[in-house]
Amino acid sequence: MSEEGRFTIHLEQLEDYEFKVRFDWEQLAEVLMDEPPPLGSRHGPNASRMLAAAVGNCLSASLMYCLARADVPPHSVKTQVTCSIVRNQRKRLRVGGLEVRIALDTAISETGRLKRCLDLFEDFCVVTASIREGIPVEVTVTDTQGEPLTGRQA
Hints:
Elements: E1 10-15, E2 18-22, E3 31-33, H1 47-66, E4 77-87, E5 93-104, H2 106-109, H3 114-120, H4 126-131, E6 137-143, E7 148-153
Parallel strand pairs: 5-6
Antiparallel strand pairs: 1-2, 2-3, 4-5, 6-7
């Protein structure tokens, strides 16, 4: 689960604001990133969307890692990330906050390890713990009916 050291991601401009992203793992497909209009053509996600995806994925993976001994069935976790874009005092666009909702299947929400994992998983998410120092990230974990299991704001 840990990723120590360094890695390098390569970006190559194709045209305008379109970039091809090549990851350091050869088996991974390239990703096309672009800006929305009026700058780009929305041919791929922009950096804010990739950041939101990274936070959602990291939190979900961290929770799954903690629950690994509970034999979690496939398709048991669904994560939604809402990103707020705001203007700062200098009128520059910034990520103002991220709201993460993780919905767990009933099989997971009844697991004995869940309480302990809910207390720990956010702190072990490399991406969220890193950006929380500058961007507020609110996380809520629910069951499939939407009932909250935990939540924390930093």
